[in-house]
Amino acid sequence: MNLNQLRYLTALADVRSFSQAAKQSCVTQPTLSNGIAQLEKHLGGKLFKRTTRSVVLTKFGEFVLPMAQAVLEAKDELEHSAQAYFKPETRILRIGMSPLLDSQLLSSALASFEKQHDWTEIFLKQCFLDDLVERLENETLDLALLPQDSKKHKHETSVLYEEDLFYLPPNDDVGSSVASNAIELRELRDRPIILTQGCGLSDVIEHLFEGADIPLTRYPGQALSYSVVEEWSDLGIAGGILPRSKLSKESSSARPILKEDGAVAKVGYEAVWMAEDMNTKTNTGTDAEPGITNVETCARHLSTTMRSLSMGLAE
């Protein structure tokens, strides 16, 4: 077993296509297929179920995937820590993010931050909410980016941006083909909603319904990814709710959700960091503002830049 095989596993689990996973991994399709086969042989079980139409993780694959991701993340963290040891003048900011955030929006904001602050190098890690909070408190992360409805304790925060929420009706739902029409939140009463786990979206949806005093009907099953939410709604299994950035280009039936006051339902995001993190004080020789930590400088930049970028995308 080697790191490349683990990379092939995570890439294939992400895109669910051998050709796309090979392209993403910068290898040929036979190389990727052979690597997956060798990994399956080494671990003793099938990781993927292959059909003529799709590639999906087996139960064993679902069990193995988080551990494979953790190994790859640990390897990256080791490399960055070693670099920090030999280059103490370079400040590494360890940023954790919920999978719910818009990755392209964040990438653009971080690129402009690194350009303006050449003393900084970013180490980015995607985590579920519980892991984000734990890593902040254990000081293995400097900054966490997550949905605003998430629970926090004694942390500093800075609002990042917000985006619209959309309802994905099951394809057997009456009127589901009318994509441009908004739907009122009260109309979703008694309609089963597919939820996800760990990223914070379920909390956002629950708080949305609780705030409107509308009971939420949860679909008994649980989706592993946002693409599965779309797929299940297309199959007529149940409805789903996703933010704009998680809708695929092929999603034609998504409908904006209106609250009782007529405003569009949204999900907000924020940056969170420890209130008294002694390791984040401004380093001598950096261009952070006096009295402002490196982490807070980054949070302020992300707040301003991501809000501006998201407003441009929404227009």
Helix and strand layout, with pairings?
Layout: H1 3-15, H2 18-25, H3 29-43, E1 48-50, E2 55-57, H4 59-86, E3 91-97, H5 103-116, E4 120-126, H6 129-137, E5 143-147, E6 155-168, E7 183-184, E8 193-195, H7 201-211, E9 218-222, H8 226-234, E10 239-243, E11 255-258, E12 266-274, H9 294-314
Parallel strand pairs: 3-4, 3-5, 7-11, 8-9, 8-10
Antiparallel strand pairs: 1-2, 5-12, 6-10, 6-11, 6-12
Helix pairs in contact: 1-2, 1-3, 1-4, 2-3, 5-9
Oligomer: single chain
Main sheet specs: 10 strands, mixed
- How many domains would you count in the coordinates? 3
SSE run? HHHEEHEHEHEEEEHEHEEEH
What is the β-strand count? 12
* Secondary structure tally, helices: 9
Measured by DSSP, the beta-strand proportion falls in 15-25%
Characteristic key phrases:
315 residues, alpha/beta, Arc Repressor Mutant, subunit A, D-Maltodextrin-Binding Protein, domain 2, ten-stranded mixed β-sheet, 9 helices, 12 strands, 41% helix, globular
